[in-house]
Backbone:
């Protein structure tokens, strides 16, 4: 017999199972087909039935294997095998895909679901709220067997959670600054409900699409909202101006304080230096009072006289000092005093007199 690449067994005749089947088939053919083919067909059908137990779990998926209806295993991604039906069955659940549910509206076809969107706020106003919830499966066993319709349960739970949170929120907060709190509160409450119902779902995001008053009063409410936004804008501008002016004023205050402190330190140091100088001079004065006194007198005149206007009077001038008293005022007006004129006339006559007049500095 031709070797067809089949493995040899360790039995007594050295024949494999397939070789035995092949020989039985050939004997049946040689017998003219008088023998019934049921055993051979049964083997083929059994092989096909066993092959139906092969299944594939894709990336991000998880398989739940049941044996006579009871869960017995969870399988990871890859090529897997289970006992054929009806002994074992498998359900493959996609754990990675993010699903979504719409509350208050439907995208296709685009329509508003008033029975879902109209809600009552905490201050007894009606508001039209629409939201989108994104979720995925976190427990395939609960998702498959604990709840009849997990997706519909999620929709109903979302409506309950959203109505509960908006029912504790004023319409102004829900339409303006409180939207984030409404989303966070709805997501927390919804997840608690889903865990209580054992749906096996995980909420990833709750996003409010529309939070508006009913159409009859929508324009009036929008005017109020715009007025509040303008108020917030003006408040923010005033705060910005405040934050700009106050630091500058504080800087100026610090500058003045530092300048005053520097001036104080300078005056103190100067006073201390003057006091030390005076004490040194006083020591020298006590040693030689007459000499020190004259030196101080001369030094004082050297400092004072260069800054004063001096008038030199001859010994023979008549009238004394009275004729020179208005000299400064007359000089400011551009006139020469009469006493100076008289003195010039006398000098012009050739009298031998010492010169008199102002000496510039």
Residues:
């Amino acid at each position: 017999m031709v070797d067809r690449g089949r493995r040899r067994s360790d039995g007594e005749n050295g024949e494999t199972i397939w070789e035995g089947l092949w020989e039985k088939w050939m004997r049946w053919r040689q017998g003219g087909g008088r023998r019934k083919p049921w055993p051979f067909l049964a083997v083929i059908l059994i092989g096909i039935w066993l092959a139906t137990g092969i299944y594939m779990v894709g990336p991000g998926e998880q398989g739940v294997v049941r044996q006579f209806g009871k869960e017995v295993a969870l399988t990871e991604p890859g090529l897997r095998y289970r006992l054929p039906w009806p002994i074992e069955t498998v359900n493959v659940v996609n754990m990675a895909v993010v699903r979504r549910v719409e509350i208050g509206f439907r995208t296709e076809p685009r329509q508003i679901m008033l029975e879902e969107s109209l809600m009552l706020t905490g201050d007894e106003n009606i508001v039209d709220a629409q939201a989108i919830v994104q979720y995925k499966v976190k427990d395939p066993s609960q998702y498959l067997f604990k709840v009849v319709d997990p997706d519909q349960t999620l929709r109903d739970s979302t409506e309950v959670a959203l109505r509960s949170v908006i029912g504790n929120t004023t319409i102004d907060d829900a339409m303006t600054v409180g939207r984030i709190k409404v989303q966070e509160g709805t997501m927390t409450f919804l997840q608690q409900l889903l865990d209580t119902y054992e749906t096996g779902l995980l909420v990833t995001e709750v996003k409010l699409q529309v939070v508006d008053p009913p159409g009859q009063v929508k324009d009036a409410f929008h005017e109020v909202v715009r007025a509040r936004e303008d108020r917030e804008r003006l408040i923010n501008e005033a705060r910005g101006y405040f934050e700009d002016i106050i630091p500058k004023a504080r800087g100026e205050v610090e500058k003045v304080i530092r300048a005053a402190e520097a001036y104080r330190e300078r005056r103190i140091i100067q006073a201390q230096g003057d006091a030390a100088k005076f004490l040194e001079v006083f020591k020298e004065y006590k040693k030689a009072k007459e000499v020190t006194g004259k030196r101080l007198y001369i030094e004082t005149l050297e400092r004072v006289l260069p800054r004063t206007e001096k008038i030199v009077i001859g010994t023979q001038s008549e009238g004394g000092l009275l004729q020179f008293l208005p000299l400064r005022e007359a000089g400011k007006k551009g006139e020469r005093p009469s006493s100076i004129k008289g003195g010039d006339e006398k000098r012009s006559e050739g009298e031998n007199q010492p010169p008199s007049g102002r000496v510039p500095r």
Q: What stands out?
A: DSSP finds eleven helices and 13 strands in the chain.
